[in-house]
Amino acid sequence: MTEAAAFLNVANSLSGKRWQARPCDERQAQALTQGRGLPEIVGRVLAARGVTDETCDTFLNPTLKALLPDPSRFRDMDPAAERIARAIRDGEPVAVFGDYDVDGATSAALLRRFFRSLGADIRVYVPDRIKEGYGPNAAALLRLKGEGVQLVVTVDCGISAFAALETAAEAGLEVVVLDHHAAEPRLPPAVALVNPNRLDEDGAYRTLCAAGVTFITIVAVNRVLRTTGFYRDRTEPNLMEWLDIVALGTVCDVVPLTGLNRALVAQGLKVMARRANAGLAALSDVAGVKEKPDAYHAGYVLGPRVNAGGRVGASDLGARLLSTDDPIEAMELAQRLEAHNAERRAVEQVVLDEALERVAAEAGRETDLVFVTGVGWHPGVIGIVAARLKERYSRPACVVALEEAADGTVIGKASGRSVRGVDLGAAVIAARQEGLLLAGGGHRMAAGFTVAGDKIDALRDFLHGRVSEQVAAAPLVPTLELDGALSVGGASVGLVTTLDKLGPYGTGNSEPRFAIADARVVRADVVGANHVRCILQGNDGARLKAIAFRALDSDMGQALLNGRGTPFHLAGVLRIDRWNGSEGVQLLIDDAAPARSA
């Protein structure tokens, strides 16, 4: 460690951010290290994440035995479990109506695997993103009814599908909703609506994603089947063997990896490492994942490929991949998803470039919300583009894909991503209640909506007003929080190995980020399409590999490429770099600042 005060307060980095130390209770940090053999820097990392002496052991070893709640604590869980169990016992035709993202795909796959383990099956229906849009629609539900389906279980959707569920109820089709998105005081008609974000819930499990809700529901259904003697003459399934799917959905839905979510992911990654799921094994092979999977692989390697089917291919590919036990089918599906993912990247880049041009055209307009529209933009990539814009401008971002209907009217399908401190989902729900949207919903960090073309300007103003109110209460200042300061020589394999024990990392348990002080760029070049790779050297003579992803066209990337011999303070996360049987450390650069101006 080096003295942090000299440069942890970088006021204006090359990406325009202020660096600041992550708040940490020093006394708590010391208490955490005593008796546990942890380095002082690790104690600081733990304390900065709210870990106390009393919760430390559970944090370091999160188990479902300690953290999984009684399913009956959730509203409507018992009637939901009873209805699904009755359908299984009586052999009723059942369908699961999913979403086309990873959370929806994993939730649908969980239910299908559970049904199949009992000798039954379940019809998986995932709507076409472009033709049908998000969530249950009346036409699809009536089609399922016509096929003989008696019960539909919606996963990762349904809590705001008032019209569709009213149609289903009128047609005599029973529906159980398993969702986690923001709910309203009024709920749609259904046999049961299980959602930790219902307004009559206590909020203790509000951060669960749909895969987590679905898993807990399966636990409840399994309990009902057990107590009613269903397993007297058959083997009870081992629900724990599907935690790899739960972990994938939890990581990819970017929910906080704390408490129960942390246990689900920690235990699920262990299951994933066994490669028992044919689909995940095939996808890992196609994606080139050779090492033990962690949250990074789930969120940035496997997740985007599962998502690709819903974005530019067939919406149900992800659910089919995750629920198959046939290795030949799994490999065929994985290869299709890999191809779709390559197509998705190309389409995404086109839309992103056009979106950036539109933002640049309004550069003089001060706004707390990035809101861009484009004709012909592919609806399957607007969520990713919104995330890119949010990252670039440190503001909530909404991207609207416009298309002309057969009758000449213009309809916009949109996706939004938010920043900490701004509840975008609530703003979108309020806009729908004001009559500005045809449909819409979401949660604090993400939202989606459909808007008529003649309402776009009014909607932009409305959302900007809602976001500005929240920003006024807590101004958005782009900051980069750091867990400590290291010299180049202090970035050791031993330190990174110890820090790995604090994972899985993600939202709510961010990967530790450090400032590397006074590092000179010895060599820098471009790798891949636009990544900048460096070799850094410290005042102690030690060297460190580093890379800045997608940085070629940024001020930081150009400064590194042209800064040979220049001292920089660099901020980023440390990873083990394995190559040809040896281990080293690599810095993944998030930001940089000239050392002389810090």
TrEMBL record:
GO terms for molecular function: exonuclease activity. Residues 482-591 form the RecJ OB domain. Keywords: Exonuclease, Hydrolase, Nuclease. Pfam families: DHH, DHHA1, RecJ_OB. InterPro entries: DDH_dom (IPR001667), DHH_sf (IPR038763), DHHA1_dom (IPR003156), RecJ (IPR004610), RecJ_OB (IPR041122), SSDNA_exonuclease_RecJ (IPR051673). The keyword Chaperone does not apply. This is Single-stranded-DNA-specific exonuclease RecJ. Residues 371-468 form the DHHA1 domain. Belongs to the RecJ family. It comes from the Bacteria. Residues 94-250 form the DDH domain. NCBIfam families: recJ (TIGR00644). The keyword Nuclease applies.
